Amino acid sequence: MLTLHGLIWRHLRTGEVIGEFGRLYEQQYAVALFNKVRFDVEGGGGPQPQLLHRKVPLENKSIFSGSLFQYLEENKKWRNRFLFVPDSYNISYYESKQAHDRGLQPKGTINCAGYRVLTSMEKYLELLETSLPGVKAKVGSSPFLKCATQFPLILWHPYARHHYFCVGTEKEQQKWNAVFQDCVRHSNNGLSEESKVQTPAFTDAVRLYRQARGQYGTWDMMCGVPSQILANLVMEKLLPELRDLITPRLKGKLQERQKNWILISDAVYGLVQSQAQTQYEAIVQSCEAGRPPLEASIRTDMDQIITSKEHVTSKIRALVLPKAEKLLKVSIQPYISSILEALMEPTSRGFFEVRDVFFRELVDMSKNLLNGGSKEKLGEHMEKISMLAFHPVKMQGCYERVEQLSLEGLQQRFDVTSPSVFLQRAQILMREQMDDAVYTFEQLLHQSLEGQEEEDLCKTIQKCQDRVIKKFDYDSSTVRKKFFREALLQVFIPYMLKQLSPSCSELPRFQELIFEDFSRFILVENIFEEVVLQTVMKDIMMAVKEAAVQRRHNLYRDSIVLTSSDPNLHLLEENPPIDWAGEYGGEKNQEEVVDGDAGSHEGDAAAQKRRRMKQVVSMIQEDGTGTVLPNESCIEVSTQILLSRTRWQGLQRIQILSHAALASAARVKERALTGVCWPMYQSWRSGAFL
After folding, report:
1. Where is the PH domain positioned along the sequence (predicted)?
2. pLDDT in tens, 488-506
3. What is the pTM of this model?
């Protein structure tokens, strides 16, 4: 148990970290507000997407449900549990399916932010040994956990409690692994894309806090909602101190000490997260209360603020540019092409696989409708295809293509801790592209079917398919080029800032050049980063442009625009969601698929609604009977696994802010370059890769 001294010490550590973060957040809040207002006034450019975007893809949908074994630490036994994941992606586990259908409270709920999914005990034990460094197990000693089958599924977290599951077959393990990976992928992206001020201010404050402590590289624990990210920030500092304090007091065998350490770490993490949430909400409330006068001041003095910023920028550029260009020539330029190629090949393979999966699904539907297909049959197929992007098993092959991405050697040279931040970013973009393609196809097909005879179904599907594939190829090229630029920035910019900061110690004096009334909206450290970014951005843009000119990996040149695009297509984006099953008479069949094993339970309205909730994937029936653990009196495990789509709240969309209009005509050429650099700078600062 934590002592009173330990609780006070933990409280002080949390208050210290959140206090410093709060100071940085208040500064960056004013800057983010200025950028947002400026963007509203000036607008932004860039190629327009050809595909439509679905705003609420998982409305009235659940993700998946099914049964597997879970290890219960309180009695050290494996028991059958029914897992249900709603569109929030929080995993709830119940005593049984009947308990879920009756509307009983779950035994527990898991928020997957920050977790890793492991499918081998060896890998788990390897990570477990790092939790208590310096404490070695005796030869021949056994771990505190023995898996009941050969197919474990373990949710591991560096600070929170671990969760242990297992299934009876390798096929089941692969399916559940795909589902758990989707839960982690979604939960890690907890920052709201709609918060155009709070989210940039938050990510900037976190990044600047870590940079002040010499941590410039990527951070794997920038995942979850703000309170979770702040708790991770606290634990990054608190955990080593806590380990030194607690480890000498842990008694018993190594296995018992490891188990007790996990419980202690989880308890501290929960307390820290609760405290971080309370303090963060107070910081945000204070900033939001002062927003109206700040915004009024920005709109009144916009031109003067921009002029003042340009003046300071020119002074900082004169100081920084010679040093930055020297560093760029020696340490950056030789590596741009090789790193870009390492990013392009696996990422493009992943996007190509997305295209192929989409194409194959439409071809299969056309084949099934070829002989005597009706609109009712079409409705059944489209009900399934509409959620293709959120099908964890069908999308897993796409995700695995990009997992071959390797940035070996960058960890030491450029302080890239692991490629996981790039992998997850690419996978989220792939899922978004798949859903955009599916949604666009839905809208085009639905529009084309109005007043259409059933004999022409296949021909209509083919025409819509060809139009969507063409749009997908264009958008895929645009999205990938943007991803490559952002990834290269995330590799190089932190390294350059780290190398240049010691030689630019006189930067704070430039703050004196800023009028006091404008000092909240113009910060020297932000301008310093903009100058560094503009230095390297030209080379990055040129490298990506050359790849597009050579048509490598099917990239389009920036000058290519789809002039034959549908001018009124985006009007369909405002249409309500299409209920394929209901509109074309397939509702009954769909409910039978989803609730095929639900039985005739009676319950309250909430339980009835929960049972009627549609899932992405129909029931998957394994061969043979369920696995039953020896010497256990638990309920027989169902081998039916319900897999469903993963909710996509969307990736933290990168805020694009155009650079200010320059008053002098002599700066038109410079503005052309800045118009490209500024959105990329905002992309890097927005936390997409942080």
Report:
1. 61-185
2. 999 999 999 999 998 888 8
3. 0.84
